[in-house]
Design a protein that fits this description.
alpha+beta, six-stranded mixed beta sheet, five-stranded antiparallel beta sheet, 15 helices, elongated, CdaR-like_regulators
């Protein structure tokens, strides 16, 4: 569904470009700040390969883009003549930067072989650039206002734990063509790198555009912040596409890092977005302490860790350390990661010596020695089922309390 706000401004921009092209009898093109075409006129006058490629492929070739920016268009404050670039079959053109004092919106191009654009024609092009600036400025302000309204609705959606309140928010989303009442939702959360360059809101919006371009079976929304939130909205019968396999590469590409990501799991009715948000938040907590081996921690697949995450949420991470077996606390304080890893692997393998030694690449005699040391250090019988449960619980609580995190195991 087209955005009526963008559509209205597009009509106005197209009219300015068409009138200028007809008046000058020259091909006119309006690019955005990255030299991606916004709109263009009919093919009047002589054309070159750069113009044809730009119109047909909706892009400017990378080498041409680099040459133009090296020439200085990125810093130009006023109209400038671009000479011919024979290596790229680019004919001379008149370039009018469309920019305000603080923001660059794009570039207006008029192809003019051998500089064949009169002074009057140049003034008309500059006037058209000023008119386009006014339209683009108003368009961006309208889009920012619309984006702000959408963000407010989405924030209310993920906070609406009451079913009636959630249905009311969904009705507002439906009125804005953002979602349908029968849609389902998945929520993802990750912590952006604190040292990442760029405005967080701009990067979040760029992530949303990247996700939308990658997968059009869903409606993607992002909420900037620490953590940043991704909402994937789709029909209940959208198909078996693994959403996490779309999200993880997009986050890596957009942020240049590979952060842990918490996922809400199986799609939920959109009226349960608050539950999905909570599940994704808890899954992120588990992902950050190294639970599982995948970048994305899926709440649906975290097993008994989910109960511990809920316990940690209710009890408070600062107090979880009080519940940890004192022998485990001592090993942590002594920095005995070798014994802690051995204990965790041994318990995860049900006390099976063979499987534990294989998992840790240890000779059995070395493993038996470590188990003896553990028995002494913990003053516990490792063959007792209740003791094993207490120790496994203690290790996991220590991880949740951020007292301990194994560096080379995924159990």
């Amino acid at each position: 569904m087209s955005d009526p706000v963008s559509a209205d401004f597009s009509v106005r921009m197209q009219l300015i470009v068409d009138v200028l092209a007809q008046t000058l009898d020259r091909a006119v093109l309006l690019d955005d700040e990255e030299l991606t075409p916004i709109t263009h006129s009919r093919q009047l006058g002589e054309l070159d390969d750069v113009r044809v490629h730009s119109v047909l492929q909706r892009e400017t070739r990378a080498e041409v883009k680099a040459a133009l920016f090296e020439f200085g268009i990125g810093t130009a404050d006023s109209a400038v003549w671009i000479p011919a670039f024979p290596d790229y079959n680019l004919m001379p053109r008149f370039c009018v930067p469309v920019r305000s004092a603080s923001e660059r919106f794009g570039y207006l191009w008029i192809i003019a072989p051998e500089g064949s654009l009169s002074e009057h024609g140049q003034q008309l092009a500059k006037r058209a650039g000023a008119d386009l600036l006014a339209i683009l400025d108003r368009r961006n302000a309208a889009l920012r206002a619309e984006e702000s309204a959408q963000q407010g609705l989405l924030m209310r959606l993920i906070a609406a734990e009451d079913p009636g309140q959630a249905q009311g928010v969904v009705a507002e989303l439906h009125a804005r063509a953002m979602a349908e009442p029968q849609h389902v939702i998945q929520v993802f959360r990750f912590e952006p790198d604190a040292d990442s360059a760029g405005n967080p809101v701009d990067r979040s919006l760029a992530l949303r555009l990247r996700l939308t371009a990658t997968d059009r079976t869903r409606r993607w929304y992002t909420l900037a912040g620490s953590p940043t939130t991704i909402l994937a909205v789709s029909r209940a019968d959208a198909g078996p596409v693994a959403t996490a396999e779309i999200v993880a590469p997009a986050v890596r590409a957009g942020y240049g890092t590979r952060p842990a990501i918490g996922a809400s799991g199986v799609p939920l009715p959109i009226t349960q977005a608050a539950l999905g948000f909570r599940q994704a938040s808890l899954a992120l907590t588990l992902a950050e302490i190294g639970v599982g081996s995948a970048q994305v921690a899926d709440w649906s697949a975290l097993g008994s860790w989910r109960s511990l995450a809920l316990l940690g949420e209710a009890y408070g991470p600062d107090r979880l350390g009080e519940l940890v077996h004192p022998g485990i606390v001592t090993l942590i304080e002594q920095n005995r990661e070798d014994l802690l890893r051995t204990l965790e692997t041994y318990l995860a393998n049900g006390g099976d010596v063979r499987r534990t030694s294989e998992a840790m690449y240890l000779h059995r005699s070395t493993l038996y020695y470590r188990l003896e040391r553990l028995t002494e250090a913990l003053d516990s019988d490792l063959s007792d089922g209740e003791t094993r449960f207490e120790l496994m619980l203690g290790l996991r609580l220590a991880r949740l309390a951020r007292l301990y995190r194994p560096t080379s195991t995924t159990v």
